[in-house]
Amino acid sequence: MTQAANILITSISKKVPLIKAVRHAADTINKTAPGQVDKIFGADADFHSIGRYFVDEFWHIPFQGALTAGEIISFCKKHQIKMIIPTRDGELLFYAKIEHELRKQGITCLVSSAQSIDLCSNKHLFYEFLRKHDLPAIPTHKNIEKLHSSSYVVKECFGAGSKSMGLDLSLPEAKIWAQKLRHPIYQPFIRGGEFSIDLYINRQGDPMGTIARVRELVKDGESQITTSVKMPQLEAICLATAKLLKLYGPAVFQVLIDDTNHMHMIECNPRFGGASTLSVAMGLKSFEWFIQESLGLSLTPFLRTDKELKQVRFPEDIILPAETT
User: Fold this and answer.
1) Distance set, CA 17 to CA 13, 22, 183, 263, 313 (Å)
2) How far apart are CA 97 and CA 92, in angstroms?
3) In sequence order, what are the beta bridge partners of 209?
4) Strand partners for 311
5) Distances (CA, A) of 179 to 152, 165, 174
6) Neighbours of 203 (CB within 10 A)
7) Cα angle value 66/220/265 (rounded, 5°)
8) How confident is the model at residue 8 (pLDDT cuts 50, 70, 90)?
9) Spatial separation of the C-alpha atoms in residues 116 and 98, rounded to whole Å
10) 3-class DSSP state for residue 20?
11) Angle of helix 286-295 versus helix 16-32 axis, rounded to 10
């Protein structure tokens, strides 16, 4: 009998909904193909990360830059880990660069190519890419003088910069705000509705499905209240963009639709998003598809639920037996 495969989720932090979504996907697969997935491991540099209480085994790893491909492969072989799910923006490029080495050892990794991640993580490059392909990008420049707007947004060019972002700033205010940032970029401030579009692209580069949702309440760049909506045109444009970017796996596009119904694509995160669990509930089975692809199983078809759903994210307490030393 073939030994069951284990899954490693990295940078688990307090991503409890994500861990639960992975576990649900594994349990679902085990119902139809018993014994395929056994344990879920979680890794984090913070020994006291909340997520460690929701995985089967916890791996306390060094901070970014100190962990090598060899150490990861050794740990995975020791613990029969066949699948890795990176979850943090800052580690995606690292795993993309070692993905081929992992694959040679029989370990699949849920990550896009390094080139795709570079395009998505650099907001100015992302804008230039969209403009080159005549896609609805929000103007993004390193020099504010290239923009002509009544008010501005200032943010970091790289990674998720929501906490350091300046919104609805005048020209003098924008210039002052930029002095706080390492690599500032400028965008026009546009009022409108905020949407997230979750999708999944399989190993062959084909889209499995997509769900659009309204961002009703946003804190630190993540939706705390979000509701699914049917927006076929918006979903089709994001899927086409994902294919052009040659993404693999789950991704989240952030799009603004202004008062004149014009679309402005802001960014793409090539990973599972903080509120993407709503899309899982709507039928976008991202983790189930990844596990099926990794194990060589047929992929479950995408079936969108009939009713729209709202997701409210909130802290919750659990009570556990005290640990003894």
Assistant:
1) 11, 9, 32, 30, 9
2) 9
3) 200
4) 226
5) 15, 12, 9
6) 13
7) 95
8) very high
9) 15
10) helix
11) 50
164, 180 Cβ separation under 8 angstroms = yes
**Among 34, 31, 25, 28, which residue's Cα sits nearest to residue 7?**
25
Q: At 48, list the tokens.
A: 């006291």
- Widest CA span in the chain: 68
Average pLDDT over residues 64-85: 94
Please tell me the least confidently modeled range out of 149-163, 239-253, 296-310: 149-163
Among 85, 79, 100, 92, which Cα is nearest to 25's? 85
Domains of the chain: 5-111 (3.40.50.20), 117-121+191-312 (3.30.470.20), 139-188 (no CATH)
CA pair distance 125, 131, nearest whole angstrom: 10
Give the predicted TM-score (pTM) of the model.
0.94
Element of type H or E holding 132:
helix 123-132
Q: How far apart are CA 223 and CA 115, in angstroms?
A: 28
